[in-house]
User: Fold SdiA-regulated-like protein from Pseudomaricurvus hydrocarbonicus.
Amino acid sequence: MSTVTLSRWQRTAWQAKRLLMASYNRFQLDTLTVNQKSLILLISVAFTAAAWLSMAWWQEAVNKASSQTPSVGLGGYSLVGPPVELTQMSYNASGITYSPETDSLFAIANNPTYIVELNKQGSELRKIPLHGYDDTEGLVFLGGGRFAILEEDTRSVVLVDIDPSTESLSREHGKIVSFPITYKRNKGFEGVAFNPQDQSLFVVNERQPRALYHIQGAVNPEAVNFSISSPWSLEENSLNKSDLSGLHFDQRTGHLLILSDESKSLTEANLNGEWVSRLSLSSSKAGFERGVPQAEGVTMDDDGMLYILSEPNLLYRLAPPSAPVRAQGT
Assistant:
Protein backbone atom coordinates (compact mmCIF):
# COMPACT_ATOMS: atom_id res chain seq x y z
CA MET A 1 0.00 0.00 0.00
CA SER A 2 1.21 3.52 -0.78
CA THR A 3 2.12 5.51 2.29
CA VAL A 4 -0.04 8.57 3.02
CA THR A 5 0.95 10.87 5.88
CA LEU A 6 -0.82 13.72 7.64
CA SER A 7 0.25 17.18 6.52
CA ARG A 8 1.79 19.65 8.97
CA TRP A 9 -1.37 21.75 9.27
CA GLN A 10 -3.49 18.66 9.95
CA ARG A 11 -1.24 17.62 12.82
CA THR A 12 -1.22 21.20 14.08
CA ALA A 13 -5.02 21.27 14.13
CA TRP A 14 -5.15 18.23 16.37
CA GLN A 15 -2.41 19.51 18.66
CA ALA A 16 -3.93 22.98 18.97
CA LYS A 17 -7.32 21.54 19.79
CA ARG A 18 -5.84 19.39 22.55
CA LEU A 19 -3.89 22.32 24.01
CA LEU A 20 -6.92 24.56 23.88
CA MET A 21 -9.10 22.07 25.71
CA ALA A 22 -6.41 21.49 28.32
CA SER A 23 -6.12 25.24 28.89
CA TYR A 24 -9.87 25.55 29.09
CA ASN A 25 -10.04 22.89 31.77
CA ARG A 26 -7.35 24.63 33.84
CA PHE A 27 -9.23 27.93 33.90
CA GLN A 28 -11.27 28.89 36.94
CA LEU A 29 -14.58 28.95 35.08
CA ASP A 30 -16.08 31.37 37.59
CA THR A 31 -13.51 34.01 36.59
CA LEU A 32 -14.52 33.95 32.91
CA THR A 33 -17.22 36.10 31.42
CA VAL A 34 -19.96 34.58 29.29
CA ASN A 35 -18.37 36.07 26.16
CA GLN A 36 -14.97 34.54 27.00
CA LYS A 37 -16.51 31.12 27.56
CA SER A 38 -18.40 31.36 24.28
CA LEU A 39 -15.25 32.38 22.39
CA ILE A 40 -13.24 29.47 23.80
CA LEU A 41 -16.04 27.05 22.97
CA LEU A 42 -16.34 28.42 19.42
CA ILE A 43 -12.60 28.08 18.79
CA SER A 44 -12.64 24.54 20.19
CA VAL A 45 -15.51 23.53 17.90
CA ALA A 46 -13.69 25.03 14.90
CA PHE A 47 -10.48 23.10 15.63
CA THR A 48 -12.46 19.90 16.20
CA ALA A 49 -14.24 20.28 12.85
CA ALA A 50 -10.93 20.96 11.09
CA ALA A 51 -9.37 17.88 12.66
CA TRP A 52 -12.24 15.62 11.64
CA LEU A 53 -12.21 16.99 8.09
CA SER A 54 -8.48 16.34 7.95
CA MET A 55 -8.95 12.74 9.04
CA ALA A 56 -11.70 12.25 6.46
CA TRP A 57 -9.39 13.59 3.75
CA TRP A 58 -6.57 11.34 4.93
CA GLN A 59 -8.79 8.22 4.90
CA GLU A 60 -10.01 9.06 1.40
CA ALA A 61 -6.40 9.44 0.25
CA VAL A 62 -5.48 6.08 1.77
CA ASN A 63 -8.42 4.36 0.08
CA LYS A 64 -7.56 5.94 -3.26
CA ALA A 65 -3.92 4.91 -2.96
CA SER A 66 -4.95 1.37 -2.03
CA SER A 67 -7.25 1.06 -5.03
CA GLN A 68 -4.46 2.17 -7.36
CA THR A 69 -1.84 -0.18 -5.91
CA PRO A 70 -1.80 -3.59 -7.60
CA SER A 71 -2.09 -6.32 -5.01
CA VAL A 72 -2.87 -10.02 -4.77
CA GLY A 73 -4.44 -9.29 -1.38
CA LEU A 74 -3.23 -12.33 0.53
CA GLY A 75 -4.96 -11.22 3.72
CA GLY A 76 -8.35 -11.94 2.16
CA TYR A 77 -7.63 -15.54 1.15
CA SER A 78 -9.35 -18.43 2.93
CA LEU A 79 -8.92 -22.19 3.00
CA VAL A 80 -11.19 -24.29 0.78
CA GLY A 81 -11.98 -27.51 2.62
CA PRO A 82 -9.47 -29.67 4.49
CA PRO A 83 -5.99 -30.30 3.07
CA VAL A 84 -5.84 -32.98 0.37
CA GLU A 85 -3.53 -35.91 1.07
CA LEU A 86 -1.56 -36.79 -2.07
CA THR A 87 -1.35 -40.55 -1.79
CA GLN A 88 1.13 -40.92 -4.67
CA MET A 89 3.54 -38.59 -2.84
CA SER A 90 4.31 -40.55 0.32
CA TYR A 91 6.83 -37.98 1.62
CA ASN A 92 9.33 -35.26 0.63
CA ALA A 93 6.96 -33.07 -1.40
CA SER A 94 9.11 -30.09 -2.35
CA GLY A 95 7.58 -27.86 -5.02
CA ILE A 96 4.47 -27.13 -7.10
CA THR A 97 3.53 -25.21 -10.24
CA TYR A 98 0.45 -24.57 -12.38
CA SER A 99 0.20 -25.07 -16.15
CA PRO A 100 -2.54 -23.03 -17.86
CA GLU A 101 -2.04 -25.14 -20.99
CA THR A 102 -3.35 -28.26 -19.23
CA ASP A 103 -5.21 -26.42 -16.44
CA SER A 104 -3.50 -28.73 -13.97
CA LEU A 105 -0.90 -28.74 -11.21
CA PHE A 106 2.51 -30.40 -11.26
CA ALA A 107 4.13 -31.28 -7.92
CA ILE A 108 7.69 -32.50 -7.46
CA ALA A 109 9.16 -34.73 -4.76
CA ASN A 110 12.71 -35.24 -3.57
CA ASN A 111 14.31 -38.58 -2.65
CA PRO A 112 12.94 -40.42 -4.51
CA THR A 113 12.55 -37.91 -7.31
CA TYR A 114 9.36 -37.78 -9.36
CA ILE A 115 6.63 -35.43 -10.60
CA VAL A 116 2.91 -35.93 -10.01
CA GLU A 117 0.32 -34.20 -12.18
CA LEU A 118 -2.85 -33.21 -10.30
CA ASN A 119 -6.15 -31.64 -11.17
CA LYS A 120 -7.07 -28.47 -9.27
CA GLN A 121 -9.02 -30.43 -6.67
CA GLY A 122 -5.87 -32.38 -5.82
CA SER A 123 -6.76 -35.66 -7.54
CA GLU A 124 -3.73 -37.38 -9.03
CA LEU A 125 -3.67 -37.78 -12.82
CA ARG A 126 -0.27 -39.42 -13.39
CA LYS A 127 3.17 -39.95 -11.91
CA ILE A 128 6.37 -39.22 -13.84
CA PRO A 129 9.57 -40.80 -12.43
CA LEU A 130 12.78 -38.74 -12.67
CA HIS A 131 16.08 -40.47 -13.46
CA GLY A 132 19.50 -39.05 -12.62
CA TYR A 133 18.22 -35.99 -10.77
CA ASP A 134 19.74 -34.82 -7.50
CA ASP A 135 17.93 -33.09 -4.62
CA THR A 136 14.98 -31.67 -6.58
CA GLU A 137 13.57 -28.74 -4.58
CA GLY A 138 11.42 -26.80 -7.03
CA LEU A 139 9.48 -26.86 -10.27
CA VAL A 140 8.08 -24.08 -12.44
CA PHE A 141 6.10 -24.00 -15.69
CA LEU A 142 7.72 -21.96 -18.48
CA GLY A 143 5.17 -22.26 -21.30
CA GLY A 144 4.93 -24.39 -24.42
CA GLY A 145 5.10 -27.59 -22.39
CA ARG A 146 8.47 -26.62 -20.90
CA PHE A 147 9.34 -26.77 -17.21
CA ALA A 148 12.38 -25.92 -15.10
CA ILE A 149 13.37 -28.38 -12.37
CA LEU A 150 15.41 -26.84 -9.54
CA GLU A 151 18.23 -28.86 -7.94
CA GLU A 152 19.67 -27.74 -4.61
CA ASP A 153 22.93 -29.68 -4.38
CA THR A 154 24.06 -29.00 -7.97
CA ARG A 155 22.91 -25.32 -7.93
CA SER A 156 21.20 -25.95 -11.25
CA VAL A 157 17.97 -25.87 -13.18
CA VAL A 158 17.18 -28.59 -15.70
CA LEU A 159 14.91 -27.53 -18.57
CA VAL A 160 12.57 -30.30 -19.71
CA ASP A 161 9.51 -30.87 -21.87
CA ILE A 162 6.41 -32.59 -20.50
CA ASP A 163 3.53 -33.53 -22.79
CA PRO A 164 0.59 -35.93 -22.41
CA SER A 165 2.76 -38.85 -23.57
CA THR A 166 5.63 -38.24 -21.11
CA GLU A 167 6.12 -41.29 -18.88
CA SER A 168 9.53 -40.50 -17.36
CA LEU A 169 12.30 -37.89 -17.54
CA SER A 170 16.07 -38.47 -17.69
CA ARG A 171 18.31 -35.65 -16.54
CA GLU A 172 20.76 -36.23 -19.39
CA HIS A 173 18.05 -35.39 -21.92
CA GLY A 174 17.31 -31.97 -20.41
CA LYS A 175 19.19 -28.71 -20.77
CA ILE A 176 21.23 -28.22 -17.59
CA VAL A 177 22.05 -24.68 -16.47
CA SER A 178 24.35 -24.42 -13.43
CA PHE A 179 24.79 -21.23 -11.41
CA PRO A 180 28.04 -20.05 -9.78
CA ILE A 181 26.44 -19.51 -6.38
CA THR A 182 27.83 -20.93 -3.13
CA TYR A 183 26.03 -21.78 0.10
CA LYS A 184 26.12 -24.28 2.93
CA ARG A 185 25.03 -27.83 2.18
CA ASN A 186 21.28 -28.37 2.60
CA LYS A 187 20.78 -24.60 3.05
CA GLY A 188 20.54 -23.72 -0.64
CA PHE A 189 17.99 -23.36 -3.43
CA GLU A 190 14.43 -23.94 -2.21
CA GLY A 191 12.06 -22.23 -4.63
CA VAL A 192 11.89 -21.08 -8.24
CA ALA A 193 9.51 -18.74 -10.08
CA PHE A 194 9.20 -17.54 -13.68
CA ASN A 195 8.38 -14.14 -15.17
CA PRO A 196 6.95 -14.79 -18.66
CA GLN A 197 7.21 -11.13 -19.64
CA ASP A 198 11.01 -11.10 -19.77
CA GLN A 199 11.57 -14.88 -19.65
CA SER A 200 13.54 -14.64 -16.41
CA LEU A 201 13.77 -16.84 -13.32
CA PHE A 202 13.68 -15.98 -9.64
CA VAL A 203 15.31 -18.37 -7.18
CA VAL A 204 15.32 -18.21 -3.37
CA ASN A 205 18.07 -19.54 -1.14
CA GLU A 206 16.76 -21.05 2.10
CA ARG A 207 19.26 -19.56 4.58
CA GLN A 208 22.93 -18.79 5.29
CA PRO A 209 22.35 -16.58 3.47
CA ARG A 210 18.67 -15.95 2.84
CA ALA A 211 18.78 -14.65 -0.71
CA LEU A 212 16.71 -13.88 -3.80
CA TYR A 213 18.33 -14.20 -7.22
CA HIS A 214 17.03 -12.83 -10.52
CA ILE A 215 18.41 -14.88 -13.41
CA GLN A 216 18.02 -13.61 -16.97
CA GLY A 217 18.83 -15.59 -20.12
CA ALA A 218 18.95 -19.03 -18.48
CA VAL A 219 15.73 -20.45 -19.93
CA ASN A 220 16.32 -19.34 -23.52
CA PRO A 221 17.25 -22.52 -25.46
CA GLU A 222 19.51 -20.50 -27.75
CA ALA A 223 21.18 -18.42 -25.05
CA VAL A 224 24.86 -18.97 -24.33
CA ASN A 225 25.23 -16.58 -21.39
CA PHE A 226 23.00 -15.52 -18.53
CA SER A 227 23.15 -12.88 -15.81
CA ILE A 228 22.45 -13.11 -12.08
CA SER A 229 21.44 -10.20 -9.87
CA SER A 230 19.77 -9.72 -6.50
CA PRO A 231 16.71 -7.41 -6.41
CA TRP A 232 17.32 -6.75 -2.70
CA SER A 233 19.15 -8.26 0.26
CA LEU A 234 16.96 -10.66 2.21
CA GLU A 235 19.53 -10.69 4.99
CA GLU A 236 18.98 -6.95 5.50
CA ASN A 237 15.27 -6.95 4.63
CA SER A 238 13.95 -10.45 5.36
CA LEU A 239 10.25 -9.48 5.48
CA ASN A 240 10.23 -11.15 8.92
CA LYS A 241 11.14 -14.55 7.48
CA SER A 242 13.64 -16.80 9.24
CA ASP A 243 13.84 -19.11 6.22
CA LEU A 244 12.64 -19.25 2.60
CA SER A 245 10.93 -22.37 1.29
CA GLY A 246 8.95 -21.47 -1.84
CA LEU A 247 8.33 -18.79 -4.45
CA HIS A 248 5.75 -17.69 -7.03
CA PHE A 249 5.75 -14.75 -9.47
CA ASP A 250 2.34 -13.16 -10.08
CA GLN A 251 2.43 -11.66 -13.56
CA ARG A 252 -0.80 -9.67 -13.01
CA THR A 253 0.80 -7.49 -10.35
CA GLY A 254 4.50 -8.09 -11.00
CA HIS A 255 4.89 -9.17 -7.37
CA LEU A 256 6.55 -12.14 -5.71
CA LEU A 257 4.83 -14.46 -3.25
CA ILE A 258 7.50 -15.64 -0.79
CA LEU A 259 6.84 -18.71 1.35
CA SER A 260 8.43 -19.41 4.73
CA ASP A 261 8.08 -22.73 6.54
CA GLU A 262 9.53 -21.62 9.88
CA SER A 263 7.74 -18.26 9.94
CA LYS A 264 4.45 -19.91 8.88
CA SER A 265 3.65 -17.19 6.38
CA LEU A 266 3.22 -16.27 2.73
CA THR A 267 4.21 -12.69 1.91
CA GLU A 268 3.53 -10.59 -1.17
CA ALA A 269 6.35 -8.17 -2.00
CA ASN A 270 7.20 -5.96 -4.94
CA LEU A 271 10.59 -6.18 -6.64
CA ASN A 272 11.97 -3.42 -4.41
CA GLY A 273 11.47 -5.64 -1.38
CA GLU A 274 8.49 -3.65 -0.10
CA TRP A 275 5.83 -5.57 1.82
CA VAL A 276 2.40 -5.54 0.12
CA SER A 277 0.25 -8.19 1.83
CA ARG A 278 0.63 -11.25 4.04
CA LEU A 279 -1.13 -14.53 4.82
CA SER A 280 -0.47 -16.31 8.11
CA LEU A 281 -0.39 -20.08 7.64
CA SER A 282 -1.59 -20.54 11.21
CA SER A 283 -4.44 -18.02 11.12
CA SER A 284 -7.88 -19.24 12.15
CA LYS A 285 -9.29 -16.32 10.14
CA ALA A 286 -8.02 -17.97 6.94
CA GLY A 287 -9.36 -21.35 8.08
CA PHE A 288 -6.15 -22.97 9.32
CA GLU A 289 -6.99 -24.99 12.44
CA ARG A 290 -3.52 -26.36 13.15
CA GLY A 291 -1.30 -24.45 10.77
CA VAL A 292 0.56 -25.75 7.73
CA PRO A 293 3.32 -28.24 8.60
CA GLN A 294 6.52 -27.60 6.65
CA ALA A 295 5.23 -25.56 3.71
CA GLU A 296 7.48 -26.26 0.71
CA GLY A 297 5.85 -24.86 -2.42
CA VAL A 298 3.31 -22.32 -3.65
CA THR A 299 1.60 -21.54 -6.95
CA MET A 300 -1.50 -19.78 -8.29
CA ASP A 301 -3.87 -20.61 -11.14
CA ASP A 302 -5.51 -18.28 -13.65
CA ASP A 303 -8.54 -17.79 -11.37
CA GLY A 304 -6.39 -16.54 -8.49
CA MET A 305 -6.67 -19.76 -6.47
CA LEU A 306 -3.61 -20.40 -4.30
CA TYR A 307 -2.09 -23.84 -3.80
CA ILE A 308 0.39 -24.55 -1.00
CA LEU A 309 2.28 -27.84 -0.92
CA SER A 310 3.28 -29.14 2.48
CA GLU A 311 5.70 -31.89 3.40
CA PRO A 312 5.19 -34.78 3.61
CA ASN A 313 2.28 -34.81 1.11
CA LEU A 314 -0.51 -32.31 1.82
CA LEU A 315 -2.08 -29.84 -0.62
CA TYR A 316 -3.86 -26.73 0.72
CA ARG A 317 -6.22 -24.82 -1.59
CA LEU A 318 -7.12 -21.20 -0.83
CA ALA A 319 -9.75 -19.03 -2.50
CA PRO A 320 -9.14 -15.34 -3.21
CA PRO A 321 -11.16 -12.52 -1.63
CA SER A 322 -14.43 -11.61 -3.30
CA ALA A 323 -12.87 -8.57 -4.98
CA PRO A 324 -10.97 -9.52 -8.16
CA VAL A 325 -7.21 -9.23 -8.30
CA ARG A 326 -6.30 -5.87 -9.79
CA ALA A 327 -4.07 -5.95 -12.81
CA GLN A 328 -1.09 -3.65 -13.09
CA GLY A 329 -1.90 -0.35 -14.73
CA THR A 330 -5.68 -0.55 -14.21
Remarks:
- Residues 34-68 form the longest helix (35 residues).
- Residues 6 and 58 are 7 Å apart (CA to CA).
